[in-house]
């Protein structure tokens, strides 16, 4: 930059010459008019009106001019800057108008489109089947009971006649809360609510208990560490296995259709005596695949029946633990997995489909649950 000098001629400074300023204006206007969008226009503005542009460098030279030369040079620099600025403002207005017109077309909303084209959300099928089961039992005059998921060992094991040496108490099956000696666990079944219901209501007592339970299980196609059970308990004078069978038949028909049949197979559970497994007649082959020479059935593995749950007459020790006189009252209880019930209703083969959040699965099952 030149220093003050009374005989200094601004025309001798290259950046302030008429040709240099005219060239700067011509290049700036051309670049601005060539900008195809607002981003390109911003880049042209920086190059031709920014702090390192030719006209900005020319303005810096004005400070070294003598007073008599500064006015004329300043006027010519300002004219150059104004010419480029006017071109920029005009181009910016044009590009913004084009952008706004394009947005109106590209982002237009057709308010005449059908409102129901977007799929609606829904409740989870497990929630729906719990409510369906509750409706069945309420229709039979039963109550729906609930209990805590964090349970005391006495309710979960001792009161249900499950001895301290039973394998179900071990850590490979039960999720104990620290420390394990506290006797507090995540309930492994909904059966503890049997005891709570009898202690709260006494006998007679008719309750159904749908709820979440926990086991030390690895997640695979048929097992989960968190799943849902349905527990049923009836205690009254004169109840027998026939009443149990009739209740199970009524539930099976409500869940799987009026042609559904059930059967009981002898088994052993600590809290019922006698005990029995509950099987459903295969809803695909209706038992025909078990006949010699019949077409095989993958659903029941050609056995004609599918295991559903466990059941039996309430053990007298369990009744006594809840303060009910086993000499006067008898009762029956049953339990089955709600995931298995839901999978049976819809011929599903993998329990993980219910918990992995695939909205296609849950939406389809929710419409049919």
Describe the structure.
This protein has 369 residues and is an alpha+beta fold. The chain folds into two domains: 10-106; 125-368, Bira Bifunctional Protein, Domain 2 (BirA Bifunctional Protein, domain 2), CATH 3.30.930.10. Helices cover 40% and strands 18% of the residues. It has eleven helices and nine strands. It has helices spanning 18-34, 38-49, 54-61, 67-106, 125-139, 153-156, 192-201, 241-256, 316-321, 338-346, 359-368; strands at 143-144, 150-152, 184-186, 205-214, 226-236, 262-269, 272-281, 305-314, 330-337. The strands form two sheets. Strands 1-4-5-9-8-7-6 form a seven-stranded mixed sheet. A two-stranded antiparallel sheet has the order 2-3. Strand 6 (262-269) and strand 7 form a beta hairpin. Helix 2 (38-49) packs antiparallel against helix 4 and helix 3 runs antiparallel to helix 4.
